[in-house]
Amino acid sequence: MIPELNSPSVWIRDRARVQQIIQSMRCTGPSTLQVISDFDMTLTRFAYNGKRCPTCHNILDNSKLISEECKIKLADLLNTYYPIETDVTQPMEEKLPLMVEWWMKAHELLIEQKIHKDHLAIVVRESDARLRDGYKLFFDHLQDKGVPLLIFSAGIGDVLEEVIRQAGVFHPNVKVISNYMDFDETGTLRAFKGELIHVYNKREGALLNTEHFQELRTRPNVVLLGDSLGDLTMADGVHDMENILKIGFLNDKVEENKEPYLTAYDIVLEKDETLDVPNAILLYITGQQ
Ligand code: TMP
Ligand code: MG
Prior knowledge:
- By secondary structure, the chain is of the alpha/beta class.
- It contains eleven helices and eleven strands.
- The longest helix is centred in the middle third of the chain and has 21 residues, at 92-112.
- The structure holds thymidine-5'-phosphate (TMP) and magnesium ion.
- Residues 38-41, 55, 57-58, 77-78, 85, 102-103, 106, 153-155, 199 line the site of thymidine-5'-phosphate.
């Protein structure tokens, strides 16, 4: 049906079920479809030429807007909390407060740096941020077919928007739920707006944004893209869901995480830096293949 699904980096627990979901989505077509995707390490690459690519936060952390002293503190936070984020053996109740702690501490440090909003576009341009290969087809095709794309990110909305704007793919069908910066009258960062979104509370973000999902009530088929087990709850605000196809990028700690990812995601993409598989599925569902 879709040759890309036979690639050795594609892991599927229940092929018959995946096939049935995809056929059912193809039958009702693009007018009943919506896509919900995480951003960092899902739409962006995990690594390029053997070097890790930055998250939205890292784009700022590594930039000239941050003092050397602050860079060390942010790197210490990353080294402390990232292993916790990706540790599948640690119970969620223990991880949750630690994730809140990480985001709060990181945001506090960023605020101390008095970042000016006019500098964001420059640091994004100068960064090593890279969308996954195939991103243009992904964004352009969804726009062409009138399929809404929700990017649901625990990163920084202002930075994320700039990445997709500079890539020329911030089309009108794209909506973003993320942590947005609050600037004072001089354009200086003074806080972050609204409820904090971290990797493991995306469900609350989805439920708070029910009016977005309300608008999409006639689209009961959801393709969800994520790279963390926390991304699985991004569609919890969708009403009257009929089918959901969960595609997970397994970027890191492959051996330890393969089993839980295979249980949680319908399709697992192991160390695949492209959007080829999601693109092939979306083209098939929307009747292009
Ligand atoms: P995502 O929901 O778009 O994937 O964004 C969350 C990622 O951001 C998560 O994997 C951890 C990462 N992160 C940093 O790299 N630096 C930070 O300071 C914080 C708070 C998060
Ligand atoms: Mg992610």
